[in-house]
């Protein structure tokens, strides 16, 4: 998910054409996000944990 | 840059206007003079409505003389982040591609200010499309910090923070999706309240990320924030989320001795805190303890996972919102925002869903904590305001290094939707403001602002007066 081809593919699918410098920066951002995302991967989400945005919650 | 003078809060100003000792015309004229004198440096405003504000001031003054008061803000000059619609004025959102926009109706929050008698003197500058934390805006100028104009005011509501900090208006509106009220409040030495998600209508406000966007007041004092929150909060049929909470009476709950303060600990809240910010947090905890609070360490197990989840949701939603203009008009966006919108487009749908699942876990864990404590406390920002020259995207890559740290401590409260207030607690050794955050259970703004009042009184931080 974090290599250059994957980021390029994701952007191309959405017709987002950026210059080389921006592409490198987006790739770096994506790698940083994947590192941050390891906290989610390491977290023990259970089958019964549904998506729960704020409007799902009682006041 | 900070203008010396008198001590006024909103209640005092409004009382003076009611009694005839304060003239709305003089007050607005003085604000306009200050804006003229400072804005070449501060860049706090995108649009100043001189004629409209003076005409409204004359009308409010005549009404006051006749005893016809519209509400608690009668004759009070306010500023509005240029993300809110106001009839007949552009809502640029700090973006070049919206320069020609003209609002055809008022945002609900703006209408409530006007109904309460306020005078909107202008629209404040911000980070482009509210998607950033510095308010270094390539189209409308970099908002400077009133305490050191070489430094940023924070963002994205930087213009509102700078305007309050410099005494250019009495109160201002901001929005907060990842810290955009609280970061500039902390860096400019003002009070910034991000209310419970959904308590103030977002109708007529340009979105950044729907899951987190929150409207709130930026003010000189906690009492002012409570008063303004009372004007703004309450159900609005044009924003269904607001139907879940009642209006706010404006009355805060002064905490009884023994109130419980949970000091957030763990990597998210402890790591990367510079010495000055750490010392300010220690001082704030000490002040609350002397005011009768019981301080105890608390932790949210899933806080770091929540941080990653908040990033995924915010960036994906921001990219989705901009699909109509981006990438078609990519070249008209600032360098940083065009890059961040592309970054958001790389978030997979599965990650967005998992992020919302993590969000639920973090909300549940945090709500459990709040069954045992009245408020949570942590620093507002982990570092001092960076220099504009170091974070201007036109001058290099420094902006990428400050983006995550500046919002590190604020985004948790957007993910959890808790009412959170940034309160100034004193200057750093170099004289810059420093603030801490207090947060409470959903809908518990009265308790939150009561404890914030106690902290404010103990800290003794004061802005230079308005009049």
What would you say about this model in short?
Chain A has 59 residues and is an all-alpha fold.
Structure report:
The complex is a heterodimer of chains A (59) and B (467). Chain A has 59 residues and is mainly alpha-helical. Chain A has a domain at 4-43. Chain A has helices spanning 4-13, 20-41. Chain A is elongated and about 45 Å long. The mean pLDDT of chain A is 89. Chain B is α/β, with parallel strands linked by helices and 467 residues long. Chain B has one domain (10-459): Amidase signature (AS) enzymes (Alpha-Beta Complex). Chain B has helices at residues 10-19, 24-42, 50-65, 108-115, 158-165, 182-188, 222-232, 267-270, 275-290, 303-321, 335-344, 349-369, 388-391, 398-407, 411-416, 445-459, and strands spanning 45-48, 77-81, 119-124, 136-137, 141-142, 144-145, 148-152, 171-176, 191-194, 214-219, 260-264, 294-298, 375-379, 420-427, 433-439. An 11-stranded mixed sheet of chain B has the order 1-3-2-8-10-9-14-15-13-11-12, with helices on both faces. In chain B, strands 4-5 form a two-stranded antiparallel ribbon. The interface between A and B is large, with 33 and 45 residues.
Oligomer: heterodimer
Tertiary shape of chain B: globular
Query: If interface size is counted as residues with C-beta under 8 Å from the partner's C-beta, which chains form the largest one?
Result: A-B, 33 and 45 residues
Gyration radius of chain B, to the nearest Å? 20 Å
Regarding CATH, which class of chain B?
Alpha Beta
- Note the total helix count of chain B: 16
Alpha-beta classification of chain B: alpha/beta
Estimate what percentage of residues of chain B fall within beta strands. 15-25%
Low-confidence regions of chain B: 1-7
Give average pLDDT of chain A, whole number.
89
Radius of gyration of chain A: 16 Å
Proportion of residues in extended strands of chain A: under 5%
What distance separates the N and C termini of chain A? 37 Å
CATH architecture of chain B: Alpha-Beta Complex
Give the strand tally of chain B.
15
For the record, the count of structural domains of chain B works out to 1
Would you report the number of β strands of chain A? 0
Give the distance, in angstroms, between the N- and C-terminal Cα atoms of chain B.
16 Å
């Amino acid at each position: 998910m974090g290599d250059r081809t994957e980021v390029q593919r994701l952007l191309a699918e959405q017709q987002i054409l950026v210059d080389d410098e921006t592409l490198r920066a987006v790739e770096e951002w994506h790698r940083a996000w994947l590192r941050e995302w390891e906290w989610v991967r390491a977290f023990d989400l259970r089958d019964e944990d549904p998506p729960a945005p704020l409007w799902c919650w009682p006041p | 840059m900070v203008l010396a003078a008198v001590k006024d809060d909103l209640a005092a100003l409004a009382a003076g206007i009611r009694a005839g000792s304060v003239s709305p015309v003089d007050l607005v004229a003085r604000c306009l003079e200050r804006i003229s004198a400072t804005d070449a440096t501060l860049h706090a405003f995108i649009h100043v409505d001189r004629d409209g504000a003076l005409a409204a001031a004359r009308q409010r003054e005549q009404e006051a003389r006749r005893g016809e008061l519209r509400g608690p803000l009668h004759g009070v000059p306010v500023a509005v982040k240029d993300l809110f619609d106001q009839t007949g004025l552009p809502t640029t959102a700090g973006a070049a591609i919206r320069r020609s926009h003209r609002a055809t109706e008022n945002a609900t929050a703006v209408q409530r200010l006007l109904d309460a008698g306020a005078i909107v003197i202008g629209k404040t500058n911000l980070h482009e499309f509210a998607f950033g934390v510095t308010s270094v805006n390539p189209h409308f100028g970099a908002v400077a910090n009133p305490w050191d104009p070489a430094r940023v005011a924070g963002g994205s509501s930087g213009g509102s923070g700078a305007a309050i900090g410099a005494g250019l208006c009495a109160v201002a509106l901001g929005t907060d999706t990842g810290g955009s009220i609280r970061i500039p409040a902390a860096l400019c030495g003002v009070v910034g309240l991000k209310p419970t998600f959904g308590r103030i209508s977002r109708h007529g406000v340009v979105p950044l990320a729907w899951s987190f966007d929150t409207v709130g007041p930026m003010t000189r004092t906690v009492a002012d924030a409570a008063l303004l929150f009372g004007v703004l909060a309450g159900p609005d049929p044009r924003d269904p989320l607001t139907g879940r909470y009642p209006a706010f009476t404006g009355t805060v709950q002064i905490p009884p001795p023994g109130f419980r303060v949970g000091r957030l600990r763990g990597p998210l809240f402890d790591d990367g805190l510079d010495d000055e910010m750490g010392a300010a947090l220690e001082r704030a905890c000490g002040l609350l303890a002397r005011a009768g609070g019981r301080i105890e360490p608390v932790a949210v197990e899933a806080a770091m996972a929540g941080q990653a989840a908040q990033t995924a949701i915010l960036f994906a939603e921001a990219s989705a919102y901009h699909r109509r203009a981006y990438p078609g008009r990519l070249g008209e966006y600032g360098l940083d925002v065009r890059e961040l919108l592309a970054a958001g487009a790389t978030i997979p749908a599965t990650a967005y869903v998992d992020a919302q699942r993590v969000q639920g876990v973090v909300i549940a864990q945090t709500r459990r904590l709040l069954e045992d404590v009245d408020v949570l406390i942590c620093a507002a920002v982990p570092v001092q305001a960076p220099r504009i020259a170091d974070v201007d995207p036109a001058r290099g890559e420094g902006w990428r290094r400050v983006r995550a740290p500046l919002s590190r401590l604020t985004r948790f409260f957007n993910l959890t939707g808790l009412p959170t207030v940034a309160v100034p607690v004193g200057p750093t050794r170099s004289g810059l403001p420093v603030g801490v955050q207090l947060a409470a259970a959903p809908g518990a703004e009265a308790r939150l602002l009561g404890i914030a009042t106690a902290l404010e009184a103990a800290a003794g931080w004061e802005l230079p007066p308005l009049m």
